Sequence to fold (523 residues):
Amino acid sequence: MTNADNTGAAAPDQVVLVVDFGAQYAQLIARRVRELRVYSEIVPHSISADEVASRKPAAVILSGGPASVHVEGAPRLDPEIYDLGIPILGICYGAQLIPHQLGGEVGRNERGEYGRTVLNRIAGSSSSLLHDGIPSEQVVWMSHFDAITEVPEGFEATASTPNAPVAAFESRERKIYGVQYHPEVAHTPHGMAAMEQFLLRESLCRPDWTMGSVIDSSVQAIRAQIGSEKVICALSGGVDSAVAAAMVHKAVGDQLTCIYVDTGLMRLNESDQVVETFQKHQGIELIHVDAGERYFERLAGVTEPETKRKIIGELFIRIFEDFARGLDDAKFLVQGTLYPDVIESGTKDAAKIKSHHNVGGLPDDLKFELVEPLRNLFKDEVRKVGSELGLPDDIVLRQPFPGPGLGVRIIGEVTPDKVAILQHADAIVREEIAAAGLERDLWQSFAVLADIRTVGVMGDERTYAHPIIIRAVTSDDAMTADWARLPYELLERMSNRVINEVDGVNRVAYDITSKPPGTIEWE
Ligand code: XMP
Fold:
């Protein structure tokens, strides 16, 4: 194991490079490779043969992409990469690129193929290494318009589908393989078996990349980076900073001090839970800053969502800085940066996508060196690492929670009274969702307090109080989301309990808006 970039993140010496041709499938491919316990990284398609060679990868996988190889300016691979002797697997666009660049032919198809189709081995082809042990007829998932019609010299077509005469090909001699279908998606039942054949049998990868090995090598990397210096970490209550802090603590123990800024905008009992988990159970030095009053003062009279975000974010930074300066001998700062952030910040569209989601992020001019032990990990891997480090499920499996907290779930002015109402209603919503066993199936589920009052009747009395809106969505990445089809009985229970138990609420609505056109949060 080696430390690649002196950020406290360890990168194993065996790596598979996934060349990104512009589809979101590159991340999925990289994750699938890692599920086979082989470490993978995503690299841009502009990577040169020299750069690839210098990484000494065990294999290279070319991802799918939205372009047609026939379009001018469509992304290409540096052709010298094919001659490096490193095993290559092309998927979809990546598969078409190989014949296109090596002397085969890709036809402009009359009809594309989208969705499930049946793949058949080509009779008479010599045995296919990729499909060895897989039924000769299998269901695969396709998404293509052009189709490979002729393989380059020295290659053999090994499988076809109704609209793709060459749906798989290989050259054992050159160790180059291509599949028109998507082995990385769940709709291709034998896809992982084909990936395994390529990685373990052809590329001789050792399946030894486990969360245990990640922790061991990260701990070494962090120790090498920090030495005997002091390090600080801002805990947010979220998964990423929690796991990053636990990892650094494992590496350097009480050289780490965590700062938890309690904004007063957290969910019910959340601050107590953070303090309890980190101080008592993990034995981490923790400064708990009770800043609720300062937040309410600054937020008084403010109703515009972006202004609220700005105030909450800036105050966080000011408070954190004050405490960090008090610890003036600290040289390092822990950040819970994840691999998707690293990939995105390498692409030009990144700024657009992330824009307002960095409240709680710290400015660059803080005079600390960054320790980013999670920067090579996907979210699901971070959760697994967190569990191995002994963090409770309540922390590692929790749903995302926005940096500005309940501040953006109270529409209009934020006051202590409204926070109390929302905390109570939100706790009921989350309790009932958990009791129904749905918490982990949902991306997020929470309550929103609207800035209006509606008329109701309770007993013989007319009421005039706030409505609570329940929001529950399914999503893979928060870029798009669908409203969750919660059972009516569950909605009814939540509604009854919120109205009966929470003073100041007389109506409950369920938000049935997807994203787009809505956003997940209400502000
Ligand atoms: P939207 O509401 O834009 O949210 O669909 C997408 C995801 O981002 C979270 N979110 C935030 N996270 N600071 C954060 O740290 C913010 O200001 C913020 N706004 C939204 C939201 O909870 C969802 O997971």
